Amino acid sequence: MTGGGSGAGPARALVVGEALVDVVERPDGSREEIAGGSPANVAVGLARLGRGADLLTWLGPDTHGDLVRTHLEASGVRVLTGDRAPARTSVATARLDAQGVATYDFDLEWDLPASWDEGAGAPLVVHTGSIAAVLQPGGPRVADLLERRRTTSTLTYDPNLRPALMGRPENVRPLVERLVRTADVVKVSDEDLAWLLPGVAPAEVAEDWARSGPALVVVTHGGEGAFACTDAGARLHVPAPRVRVADTVGAGDSFMAGLVDGLWSAGLLGADRRDALHEIDAATAEHVLARCVRIAALTVSRHGANPPTAAELDDPSVLAAVLADAPDGGSA
Hints:
nine-stranded mixed β-sheet; alpha/beta; four-stranded mixed β-sheet; disordered N terminus; 12 helices; 13 strands
């Protein structure tokens, strides 16, 4: 089995999931290729916040794979090498019409290697989500990996659902709920819940999920901020700063990275801190979430999935420069 006992080397996060290339085709015939994938974005967000981040993904030995690796490594993410890989890297193509409306084609393959070069020492936290947790054949293997890591690591999960790829919600729901029960921390968007459980209030879902196993469940509401409930009984809402929005690409992923980073700073990560995480108090949770919404606000103020560094986050002038001039000027 890859990995090992805790305590060997600097603390690191293991992110498990897809990294791919987004190809944007515009009406004028121009094309742009951008590295993406929700778990890959989380790994980048963590690395930019100063955390050691490993990404276990499924990249081919091709130019698209090279593009993704270069992007990840530029932010300090270590891409783990496995014993097997796909023939080609997954691609999502967005074709824009004259009004900027996109239609999508997906050429995706997702699986996990049987072994990889993670090295000695268990990660402090293991994160997964989105396509990697659902798409066959890799999805069940991701769930199995998380369950094995529960004895050594905090487990975090963001469903980040993709209806165009995942089929019917009633088929996806058991997969999501299995991972929710396994995870210590869950972050989910209100849009995800509207598709997965239509007609059920997000706060009600969060309460139900918190009773099923996680210590902390967070529901993001875009520009309205985030709601959280804890196993210890805390319930809180944190508003988001209102900023001038460039686009919302990667906002949820940067929020997720901020959530892991904030709990890391609070000393609540690692399997040996599970009881403390389940007892997280409202003040600590609020402090962590307030930082998360600032991270997401800075991300949406920029084009693409471009999360802030720790230095940018800690510099008040960076956020002040993108704050909306009026209440209706934009939101995180």
